[in-house]
Design a protein that fits this description.
Blueprint lengths: L2 H9 L5 H9 L4 E3 L13 E4 L6 E4 L9 E3 H12 L1
Parallel strand pairs: 1-4
Antiparallel strand pairs: 2-3
The structure holds zinc ion.
The site of zinc ion has 8 residues, from strand 4 and helix 3.
């Protein structure tokens, strides 16, 4: 595991599901895969739009309440900008 992966791994936090959903309601960003990047992995996946770039994204039904769904590309750009 490289240093960047270690840093990310150390920041991972496992939340109880209720707390996770409260965070989504409060506007915490939800990172989603772009539809263009991967096939449907679950038959009940829903399609939304990245709030930053408007690309179509997949998300799970229980994440419907997330107000700030962003695609993995925008998340990566934000992460790179923060680390520079
Ligand atoms: Zn995006």
């Amino acid at each position: 595991m490289n240093d960047r992966a270690k840093k990310i791994f150390e920041q991972l936090v496992v939340l109880p599901h209720d707390e996770y959903l409260e965070g989504l309601k409060a506007g915490h960003p939800l990172v989603c895969m772009r539809v263009a990047d991967m096939p449907q992995s679950f038959l009940d996946n829903k399609i939304g739009e990245c709030v930053l770039c408007s690309q179509k994204i997949w998300y799970r039904p229980y994440n419907e309440i997330a107000t700030n769904k962003i695609c993995a590309h925008c998340a990566m750009e934000m992460s790179n900008a923060r680390d520079c």
